[in-house]
């Protein structure tokens, strides 16, 4: 019994132990599971927290990008028009040809064709096939696209690690069509394709290049293109759509379309025809006077400030703005490169090789040259105005009442100014003697103007100097107007000597734009106007968004004073140093200028002209910078012309103004003397007796001479109905005498009016004279002819002969 009890007890103990063991194992398992679960889920929970809370915005942005397609839609850049609606700048579609060399290698040759039955690739055969396909593409493209560099193309085609290579850019539609046909026919669109873009075009090439500027990869770079870049470029649009995981666009309710807003169009005050006249005049003068440092010309409406033309030389073609075409500028670039190279060799801390130094020098010289051609000398350069400034001094003195038309001034050839150790000379070293105010202006007499400046006094002179805008930029709507820092003296530092030389336009600097606006104020009724080149801003449908109204900055002198100044300045052209600007039929006023510079041998010759003198519609400032001296210190250029504004700029401005007024439809008004030289139509006198023919010709203001013998006119030169200058001599042929069909044009340059006329008429030609108000006197000689001597021309041709007077205008 006891044994059974002990056995049962032992079993119970063992069972209890087993239960405790199981509970322990269970507890440990639970604890282990809890610990493992916590250890596993804590990072998971942290990751969920990081994704859902901490980096929510980042992941949401990524998801949006993956699920949507956002494309930019480019806006069309606005056009630029001249005042008559001629397109000066426009944009057109061009194409870039893109190649994926990687896709060409992978897709043009199927690897399966070069794989053995066991799956091994015959790499040699496959590489040969790829090369053959590449060679064929090179051959096709070389025959399809002109001016491709074959060596460069071969490198691009074989660059199989790349998926994007530009083969050709800026392809125009005509060439693009041929390429497009090739792509379709040869099914190459998966590795060769066209991408559309835009190209800026300037239909008039170099016309008004510095004013217009150009567009580079970043947008407008210089000129109007830069100043109005935000207006012209418009606003890009967007297309936002959802897309599948494969990238396919899905157009649905979630799509969004934002149209591009095309750029606004600009209409300028520039007139393409007048601009072409101005640029032609610059080119002619540069050649005629061997000008070495460029030139500038501004044509403006003096009443409104509207710029009709702004020309600067050297110029460039904005279609190829990095190309230097000016011959002189190219020569200067070569010399500049040599000078820079010499300086670099002397200072070479980096121990560069000679080849590296030369490359660096050439790059710097090229940069200097392109920046020179992009600059507008009319806007961003300064110069000493010389005697053209005398109009400002004249207007100031008349307004203040310190001078009048009845005053006289004596010029001995120089004038002594207190504070300066030697007399200041006049351009005429022997002096002008006693002269009225008008004569002093006509003679451009420096001593007389020094006296006028003294009458004004420092304070009043400076008041008008400021009032005429000499101390402030004009504010024209173009970038790059030159700074005026250190261009003039401050009021408190101006001396009596400064006043003396400033009275004839020396030892201070202005921009050409400042000078023309100041001069305009002396003859337009007394108003200083703000110059501008953009007349209006409009949408593509021609709706005007902005329109520029003329701005009067201030009234400087009275209308009465302005009229008095205009009358005196008109006499400068009819009787004074500006007589070479005279053109029959037009009342032209103006002032010459010859500005000395600090550079030895460099003079800037200029002329400021306006017309009609009694009611100006146009004002022109033209200057040639550094006509080359025949020898150091010579007063004559290498082309034999006396270096002065009266001899170089005035003869160019007169015909330029006449062309502009003719173009504008301003009617010519001839004096009685001018009417005698106006063209007349020759009557028919063939078949008449000699006496009857001569009588008929005399009634027309024509004379005659006979060739041959007999009483009856059998032929005449010129034929009836031809227009010839009044006073011309008609050739009458008698009996069997007959006129030659052509003749050799004689040389008349350097001859007087009568000698030139006789020489031409003796050769069977007729002369139309221009250039000066009177053609008589020892100083008036022919300076050019429209048909060069030695050339063959039809008998009876009217030869245009330009006359000029040698004048010594003041500085």
TrEMBL record:
Compartment list: Membrane
Annotated PROSITE patterns: PASTA
Spans traversing the lipid bilayer: 29-49
Any one GO cellular component localisation term in the record: plasma membrane
GO biological process: cell wall organization
CDD domains linked: PASTA_Pbp2x-like_1 (cd06576), PASTA_pknB (cd06577)
Domain of life: Bacteria
Keyword terms of this UniProt record: Membrane, Transmembrane, Transmembrane helix
PASTA domain boundaries: 676-736, 739-805
GO molecular function, one term: penicillin binding
Sequence similarity: Belongs to the transpeptidase family.
PANTHER family according to UniProt: PEPTIDOGLYCAN D,D-TRANSPEPTIDASE (PTHR30627), PEPTIDOGLYCAN D,D-TRANSPEPTIDASE FTSI (PTHR30627:SF1)
Protein name: PASTA domain-containing protein
Natural source organism: Flintibacter faecis
